[in-house]
Amino acid sequence: MVDLQKIVKQINGIRNIYMWSGKGGVGKTTAAINLATWLAASGRKVAVVDTDSHPNTSSLKDMSKVREDRRYTLSDVIQREKPFLDAMYQVRNGLYVVPSETNIEVAKTHIIINEAQDVLLDRFYALMAQLAPPPEDPPFWQEKTYLAPHHLPPLAELSDLEMQAPPAYLEYIIWDFAAEPGALGKAILRLPKGEIWSPVLLEPYPLLAFAQMKQQTTQMFQYHPVERRPVLKGVFPFMLTHKTEKVTEEFAKLYLAHQDIFMHPIHNDDKVAATQDYYPAQSIYEVDQTSRAGREFFELAMRLDGYQGSFGKKTHCPHCEAIYEWARQQSGGEGA
Ligand SMILES: Nc1ncnc2c1ncn2[C@@H]1O[C@H](COP(=O)(O)OP(=O)(O)OP(=O)(O)O)[C@@H](O)[C@H]1O
Ligand SMILES: [Mg+2]
């Protein structure tokens, strides 16, 4: 017997985040992995779901370490009715990954051929029914007026046994989108309470793709009731450099158009590329927390979690500040 009340309560207690921006290679996977790791380090329980046929997020888990008859991916969840929890592997304390695979395309075809847009909705509700409610108290750091990475206790090492344990509860599900989400992405977008978070590369094609993504989403859900539409909740410039005037101009435009949901940018940082030298994949949390991108991902993750306090002056960028200031003057208001 399905306990509807429990499912509704679970859905209300969970953040359902789509890392999507409309274009390939703009940083969706990097953002998903790094934000998820910082959230887990802050004590949150987070699952990252890879939906891409280039399964980069999946490399958080070395599947060769999993018994062959227990190796499940998102494909099995969609095609074989495997519960989400069976395909969820703990990779850090509180951080879980649902891997994808190169032939996730078959799962997309499965959705199209069987007109199975509801397949993910079913699996999602089933997952909600299996999870315990998350704790209601806010984490200790939410109360702090000033927050730095060293305030968070280090992520505990996991034993092999712990790696096999499914989560008792989850506070975040982060879906790492493919550049072109297709049938699978569209099925995911129909899940309840979806929030889109977009890393935006300030170059012509990514900006165009971002605009198209917003338009596509609006069109797709124009006949749905408002509460059933995914909502754009966060926009942040990604791999930002301040090399050209054009970038400054695009930054200001993006900021003015999205002031309420504008998050501070993640700058271009070689340390991020260095995180990709590892298998299983590492995040900036492990590689260098004090790097610029390390601090910026930390701050972005905490803001995403709703932290309102201060981080001190450390990552303030004079170029960005000048753009905010200019844009505020343009709009004639106080701004963010
Ligand atoms: N802040 C950064 N500084 C420098 N390089 C970065 C930064 N963030 C990401 N990169 C690099 O940019 C590349 C693309 O990033 P990523 O794979 O996250 O994009 P994506 O949007 O997920 O791409 P796809 O659409 O192919 O899935 C990666 O090689 C990554 O190392
Ligand atoms: Mg990716």
TrEMBL record:
Residues 16-122 form the AAA domain. Coiled coil: none annotated. Signal peptide: none annotated. InterPro entries: AAA_dom (IPR025669), DNA_Partitioning_ATPase (IPR050678), P-loop_NTPase (IPR027417). This is AAA domain-containing protein. The lineage of its organism: Bacteria, Bacillati, Chloroflexota, Ktedonobacteria, Ktedonobacterales.
